[in-house]
Amino acid sequence: MILNEMVHDARVIRLGGEHLPKSVRRWNGDSVGRWEGNTLVVDTTNFTSKTQFRGSGENLHVIERFTRTGPGTILYRFTVDDPSTWDRSWTGEYPWNASDENLYEYACHEGNYSLGGMLRGERQKERDEAAKKK
């Protein structure tokens, strides 16, 4: 499963399975995974017509490859295809690097007073630590 923190979407990736019938459409598509050596290959089809990426639609087909390239790095490579949108498939990739930094919740900030409170608390902590050093 891949949990997308933004809007809390969860993609369930079935390993070694077959795609659902084309009549079954999902917001995040139907993801089926398999291992090729040390690379997880995820094949996703059956997107809804509401899942649009750069003009794509129900024919969207995405193949993702997740390869661990080091103790703290995964190379993420994806190929996107939709013959009703593009004249050929296209590919991109980038490394995902592990981080020791804090992660903060993605949320709408209209009326969200907690962010201001967190920042004021952190600034107070910094002032307190600076005062101890004097």
How would you explain this protein's 3D organization?
There is one protein chain. Helices cover 15% and strands 37% of the residues. The protein has 134 residues and is mainly beta. The chain folds into 2 domains: 2-101, no CATH class; 104-134. The strands form 2 sheets. A 6-stranded mixed beta sheet has the order 3-4-5-6-7-8, with no helix packed on it. Strands 1-2 form a two-stranded antiparallel sheet. Strand 4 (30-36) and strand 5 (39-45) form a beta hairpin. The longest helix has 20 residues, at 114-133. It is elongated and about 65 Å long. The model has no long low-confidence stretch (mean pLDDT 88).
